Write a sequence for this structure.
């Protein structure tokens, strides 16, 4: 089966400013791919290029094996068989919920339109609101209507632009789960854009991390979390500790860590990224580095512990640990710090 | 809330349609031509400032010019003060107090908007003149005869100021009321917790917060005052407007008339700047978006009666009394308006208004969509410039249209005579083209504002959503834009229609020979002191004028903050 979407060498600029730079991306049939990155990194533009809402300047867009845009030809959005849900939902205010959902079913018999719209509304549990107007519904309900409307014509590809950004945190988590099951049930290949890393991890089969118009890393959520290709990618998915170091004798040394430097040359400055949950604490005297607890913050299920340890030349090192459970050291106590194997990442320091 | 991607590297709005507009230059050119054409009268007037007409000016300056300026200035100041007091006072009473009849009065206070100032002036002249019912009653009660008692003359500058205040205060009322309602109850309540009494809260918080709106409404009323011709002409008050008429029609001094028009324009633009400035300041007027219905002070007994009276008197004198008078006269002159001639007048008015409204909406739609499709600021700026027309008094527009149109006609006629041996006559200035064009200059901005508001309800993402759900651009227009905008477009057309119906000075100067409208006939009959005969035409204008008041009242009742959202 052909991939639902292939973007090949896409480059796009507004008024001379490059926002998408030689981007390649594949959405396999039936999979959900999340394009994540900070605001302004070009992810929404990528989505719009795939939809045909923006004329392609350079590269190729292939949907379900058919080239729909290659710089010479550019198939109109209404002829691409693509569904899209917008950040502001863009529901039509003059149409009822049912009419909104049935909007993309024009050309089919009235009977079929009505039954398909009803089916989609049932899938999002809003069948009771068929006759209501969008502005009378809550934000979460509007989001589900927008999703139902995009899915109703059974598109070959679904595009989601920041689908949960307008909702509050609690609602967002509920809708995320609902959306995931809806996508699975319909088996629709999906390309979703978000700046929320947790959301991306939760929904995606594959992730593509984007930065300044380029894709920095692609892979499964696990791969990207466990083997980030850059400090940016590592830091995008959680708070991280950043330590600087030097390659000496083929190893990188910091007070808490001693890691193989891989193929980094001798004397090179490096950045070591450690996730807070990889930091392990043990009673003072156990194997590890001595540290003082300077602050403890309880987040409910987990706690954040700030640590301070002396380094060479009167320098202090600070580290943040994230501990699960209730067994948390007291402020001012001494502990032994170590880092879980394989959860610290070494990158050449490019800032200097 | 959703601005994240829109401000960050996102495409400008309108892209989905722009994609199919392949020649943006042609669009800019078309907008520029339209705006230039609509600015023609303004440019002509501006150009005439440099045409020497010293002799006329020396004569004017020595004789009537000081009178013109004094008349316009006195009127503007007194109407400004009058509308400010009446408009703000009534707005405050209906929004912040509770008394019997408040709900009905809050809408009834808009009714005087239906009256053009000259029509109410005709009504009161009939009521208050020597032969009118008031003085007749006075004489029959007291037995006094002619010249044996003093009675205020309605046909005077103060009389004109009162007439205009009666019909123009709703501008201030509307904006002040909106400002009082917009003010968050929290702001008022916080002032109470900080030790203000209800009265202090009004004077120290509510009134200063509403000041920009009050100033804006007053500026609109003053601009209408400067625009007025019918009232001052009927009352024999000399102002810049009547001066333009005298120079143009009476003395045939085109250059001097244009220069007087320029002087009037300067006055109007001073007021306009004031209005813009006050609108700019308004942005800072409320700092919180938490609304609750305002706490209203319950009035009882005498105070309630006084409040009721204060709000009822403007409605009585601004609408009920003159409307009833016109209605009574219309009934006793049925032999006049039941003739086919009256139907012809009504048809003329209707045709002119409908043509102007239709064209104004078409041009307004074109400019609005051009703004949506164009990414640059150039088009937007040009469209803003075209909206200045609403500030230009009708008499000024008329002079600015007549000069180039007549010139063009003479030139074409000359060419035709020289080369073809026939006279083409007055192609442009002789037909309804000139007067329609003047209406467009003056009232298209009104249509534009309404259409812009309607188009603003359609987000660019709605366009995109329709496209992705299988609609071509034309189908998107038909199925999304048309139904959403229909109401706004019709309202815009209605507003222009009614304004054209009421318009007097430009119609008087520019209408084709023997082409009379209701407004013109009312004016002519009133000039001949046949006020009773003028009543049917005047009443017809007022009745049509009530339509937009109803639309306005409905729009207000739907758009109160916190009362349902769209």
């Amino acid at each position: 089966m052909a991939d639902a979407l292939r973007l090949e060498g896409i480059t796009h600029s507004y008024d001379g400013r490059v926002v998408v730079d030689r981007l390649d991306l594949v959405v396999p049939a039936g999979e959900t791919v999340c394009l994540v990155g900070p605001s302004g990194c070009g992810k929404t533009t990528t989505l719009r290029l795939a939809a045909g809402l923006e004329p392609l300047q350079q590269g190729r867009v292939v949907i379900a094996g058919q080239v729909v845009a290659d710089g010479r030809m550019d198939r109109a959005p209404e002829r691409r068989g693509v569904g899209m849900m917008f950040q502001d939902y863009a529901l039509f205010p003059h149409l009822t919920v049912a009419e909104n959902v049935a909007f993309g079913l024009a050309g089919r018999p009235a009977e079929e339109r009505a039954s398909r719209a009803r089916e989609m509304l049932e899938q999002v549990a809003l069948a009771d609101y068929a006759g209501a107007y969008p502005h009378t519904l809550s934000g979460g309900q509007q989001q589900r209507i927008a999703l139902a409307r995009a899915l109703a014509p059974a598109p070959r590809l679904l595009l989601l632009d920041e689908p949960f950004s307008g909702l509050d945190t609690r609602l967002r988590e509920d809708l995320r789960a609902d959306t995931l099951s809806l996508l699975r049930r319909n088996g629709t290949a999906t390309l979703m854009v978000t700046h929320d890393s947790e959301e991306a991890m939760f929904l995606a089969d594959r992730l593509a991390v984007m930065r300044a118009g380029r894709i920095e890393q692609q892979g499964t959520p696990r791969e990207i979390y466990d083997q980030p290709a850059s400090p940016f990618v590592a830091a995008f998915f959680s708070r991280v500790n950043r330590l600087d170091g030097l390659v000496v004798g083929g190893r990188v040394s910091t007070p808490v860590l001693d890691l193989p430097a891989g193929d980094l040359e001798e004397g090179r400055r490096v950045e070591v990224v450690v996730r807070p949950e990889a930091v392990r604490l043990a009673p003072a005297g156990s194997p590890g580095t001595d540290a003082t607890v300077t602050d403890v913050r309880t987040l409910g299920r987990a706690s954040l512990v700030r640590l301070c340890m002396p380094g060479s030349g009167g320098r202090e090192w600070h580290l943040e640990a994230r501990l699960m459970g209730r067994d948390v050291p007291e402020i001012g106590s001494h502990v032994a710090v170590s880092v879980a194997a394989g959860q610290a990442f070494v990158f050449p320091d490019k800032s200097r | 809330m959703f601005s994240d991607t829109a401000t960050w590297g996102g495409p400008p709005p309108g892209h989905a349609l722009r994609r199919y507009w392949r020649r943006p230059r042609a669009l800019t050119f078309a907008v520029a031509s339209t705006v230039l054409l609509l600015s023609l009268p303004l440019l002509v007037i501006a150009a005439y400032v440099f045409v020497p007409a010293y002799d006329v000016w020396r004569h004017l300056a020595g004789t009537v010019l000081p009178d013109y300026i004094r008349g316009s200035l006195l009127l503007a100041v007194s109407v400004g003060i009058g509308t400010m007091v009446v408009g703000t006072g009534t707005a405050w009473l209906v929004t912040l107090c509770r008394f019997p009849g408040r709900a009905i009065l809050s809408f009834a206070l808009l009714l005087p908007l239906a009256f053009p100032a000259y029509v109410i002036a005709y009504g009161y002249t009939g009521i208050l003149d020597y032969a009118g019912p008031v003085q007749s009653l006075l004489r029959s009660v007291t037995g006094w005869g002619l010249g044996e008692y003093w009675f205020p003359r309605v046909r005077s500058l103060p009389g004109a100021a009162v007439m205009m205040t009666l019909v123009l205060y709703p501008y201030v009322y509307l904006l002040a009321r909106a400002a009082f309602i917009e003010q968050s109850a929290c702001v008022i309540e916080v002032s109470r917790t900080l030790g203000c009494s209800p009265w202090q809260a009004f004077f120290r918080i509510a009134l200063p917060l509403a000041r920009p709106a009050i100033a804006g409404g007053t500026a609109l009323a003053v601009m209408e005052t400067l625009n007025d011709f019918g009232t001052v002409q009927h009352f024999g008050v000399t102002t810049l407007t009547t001066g333009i008429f005298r120079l143009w029609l009476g003395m045939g001094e085109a250059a001097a008339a244009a220069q007087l028009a320029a002087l009037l324009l300067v006055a109007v633009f001073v007021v306009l700047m004031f209005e813009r400035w006050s609108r700019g300041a308004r942005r800072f007027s409320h700092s919180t978006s938490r609304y609750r219905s305002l706490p209203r002070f319950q009035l009882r007994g005498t105070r309630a009666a006084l409040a009721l009276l204060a709000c009822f008197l403007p409605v009585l004198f601004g609408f009920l009394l003159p409307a009833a008078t016109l209605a009574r006269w219309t009934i006793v002159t049925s032999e006049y308006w039941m003739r086919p001639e009256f139907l012809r007048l009504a048809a003329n008015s209707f045709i002119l208004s409908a043509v102007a409204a239709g064209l104004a909406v078409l041009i307004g739609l074109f400019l609005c969509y051009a703004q949506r499709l164009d990414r640059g600021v150039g088009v937007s700026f040009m469209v803003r410039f075209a909206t200045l027309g609403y500030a230009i008094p009708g008499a000024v527009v008329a002079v600015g249209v007549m000069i180039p149109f007549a010139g063009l006609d003479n030139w074409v006629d000359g060419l035709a005579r020289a080369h073809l041996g026939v006279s083409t006559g007055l192609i442009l200035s002789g037909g309804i083209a000139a007067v329609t064009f003047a209406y467009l200059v003056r009232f298209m901005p009104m249509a534009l504002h309404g259409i812009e508001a309607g188009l603003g309800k359609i987000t660019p993402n709605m366009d995109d959503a329709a496209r992705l759900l299988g609609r071509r651009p034309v189908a998107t227009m038909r199925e999304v834009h048309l139904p959403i905008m229909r109401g706004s477009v019709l309202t815009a057309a209605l507003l222009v229609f009614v304004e054209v119906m009421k318009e007097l000075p430009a119609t008087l100067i520019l209408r084709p020979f023997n082409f009379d409208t209701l407004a013109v006939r009312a004016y002519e009959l009133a000039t001949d002191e046949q006020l009773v005969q003028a009543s049917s035409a005047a009443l017809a204008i007022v009745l049509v004028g009530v339509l937009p008041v109803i639309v306005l009242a409905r729009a207000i009742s739907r758009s109160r903050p916190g009362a349902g959202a769209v």
User: Anything to note?
Assistant: Chain A touches chain B through 42 residues (CB under 8 Å). The radius of gyration of chain A is 24 Å. Chain A has a mean pLDDT of 89.
